[in-house]
């Protein structure tokens, strides 16, 4: 089930990943929250599927908002952020992009990136 555009608003992180429905939605999520980890993914991508339970755990256990962008549905948005492969992880802190990583990162590495900007 996809989470609607209003979940986790007012600086309160959502406890499950938010599915982004376009550029304005992503802009709103990044603006409304201190730390946002964005997963650019594709349903057909095996590594993306491996990353899914990790992102669900991080959404439940960290103060970051986990946002997901389907690159097949939002090709222009992916292009705007220079996404060339999936999964691509972007991290935003205080409205600014601070990290970008291509490929699957282990949970402890992702948690460390989030913790670096939430402390």
The separation of the N and C termini measures: 31 Å
Number of helices: 4
Query: What order do the helices and strands follow?
Result: EHEHEHEEH
The CATH class: Alpha Beta
Give the full name of the CATH homologous superfamily.
Glutaredoxin
Q: Strand sequence of the main sheet, in spatial order?
A: 1-3-2-4-5
Label the overall shape.
Answer: globular
Work out the radius of gyration: 13 Å
Helical proportion?
A: 25-40%
Runs in which pLDDT lies below 50 for 5 or more consecutive residues are: 1-11
Domain Thioredoxin: 5-119
Protein name: Thioredoxin
GO molecular function, one term: protein-disulfide reductase activity
Pfam families: Thioredoxin
Describe this structure in words.
Residues 5-119 form the Thioredoxin domain. This is Thioredoxin. InterPro entries: Thioredoxin, Thioredoxin-like_sf, Thioredoxin_CS, Thioredoxin_domain. Pfam families: Thioredoxin. The protein has one domain (18-118): Glutaredoxin, CATH 3.40.30. Strands 1-3-2-4-5 form a five-stranded mixed beta sheet, with helices on both faces. The protein has helices at residues 23-32, 46-61, 75-80, 107-118; strands at residues 18-19, 35-41, 65-70, 88-93, 96-102. By secondary structure, the protein is of the alpha/beta class.
Key terms:
119 residues; 5-stranded mixed sheet; alpha/beta; disordered N terminus; single chain
Write the layout of secondary structure elements.
Layout: E1 18-19, H1 23-32, E2 35-41, H2 46-61, E3 65-70, H3 75-80, E4 88-93, E5 96-102, H4 107-118
Parallel strand pairs: 1-3, 2-3
Antiparallel strand pairs: 2-4, 4-5
């Amino acid at each position: 089930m996809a989470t609607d555009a209003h979940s986790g608003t007012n600086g309160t992180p959502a406890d499950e990943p938010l599915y982004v429905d376009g550029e304005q939605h992503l802009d709103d999520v990044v603006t409304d929250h201190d730390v946002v980890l964005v997963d650019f993914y594709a349903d057909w991508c095996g590594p993306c599927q491996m990353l899914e339970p990790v992102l669900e755990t991080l959404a439940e256990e960290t103060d970051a908002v986990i946002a997901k962008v389907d690159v097949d549905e939002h090709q222009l948005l992916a292009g705007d952020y220079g996404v060339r492969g999936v999964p691509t992880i972007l991290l935003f802190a205080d409205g600014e992009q601070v990290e970008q990583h291509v490929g699957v990162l282990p949970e402890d590495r992702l948690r460390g990136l989030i913790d670096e900007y939430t402390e």
